[in-house]
Amino acid sequence: MATRIRRLLCASLVAVLAACGSAPVGPGFYRVERGDSVSKIARENRTSVQNIVRWNGLANPDAIEVDQVLRVVPPAGMASAPRPAPAPSASRGDTAPDPAPAKAPAVSLVWPAQGEVIRTFDGKTSKGIDIVNAPGTKVVAAAGGTVVYAGNGLRGYGNMLIVKHDSEYLTAYAHNRALLVKEGQTVAQGQQIAEMGDTDSNRVMLHFELRYLGRSTDPSRYLPAR
Q1: How many angstroms separate the CA atoms of 31 and 24, rounded?
Q2: Are residues 120 and 52 in the same domain?
Q3: Fewest Cβ atoms closer than 10 Å to its Cβ: which of 17, 84, 166, 223?
């Protein structure tokens, strides 16, 4: 049972990272399109905004991104909350105020690899940063946590690791030549977890992403100056 739950968690985390063009998503998930809103997605999937927010850990329902993959059915073992009845209002056009965006707490990262940064984060075409160096360059955990994914099942990322740091933050390390840790393993900040490579890439590099509550975040804001 524990193995099955871990695999479901890994699948959810991989789905969160799957923002690569128009690749199909699995049953129970939905890829955000231009013009979508959480309320529209909830309505079309016959569920509530509350469920969409809870199943995806969304801090701000108004901050979803085009190509972001959202879970639209409850994970195994989690019940679906009933759709709330419309609240009474003074006029038909009144709506409840949107929740205020949550402020991300600080997270302390170390550089996951030595090398030159050839691509920076822009939140649209680049969901992270790319660091180039020689094949086999040491790749380390940017912060301590648990390895929740180790494999090459996500197109465009090659041999990839995902490390979950807490209930809010995770980091991803893609295109590795070799993965040195396994799913379920606890790693310390600065511990070597992979070797830089070029799997599913046209050059040797590390593609590094930081996610806060499922949303891509500029990792350079959390990395020390160098």
Answers
A1: 8
A2: no
A3: 84
CA–CA distance, 25 with 157 (Å, rounded to integer): 16
Q: In this structure, what CATH number is given to the domain that contains residue 181? A: 2.70.70.10
Can you give the pTM of this predicted structure? Answer: 0.59
Query: Which of 224, 193, 223, 214 minimizes the C-alpha distance to 18?
Result: 214
Please say which residue of 17, 38, 71 terminates a domain: 71
pLDDT of 33-45, one tens digit each? 878 888 888 888 8
Number of domains in the chain: 2
Structure tokens of 97?
């105020």
Distances (CA, A) of 221 to 109, 117, 183: 10, 14, 28
> Residue 126 falls within a domain, yes or no?
yes
User: What range defines the domain where residue 166 resides?
Assistant: 116-221
Dist CA 207 CA 178 (whole Å): 14
Query: Cα dihedral angle (66, 15, 220, 198), rounded to 10 degrees?
Result: -110
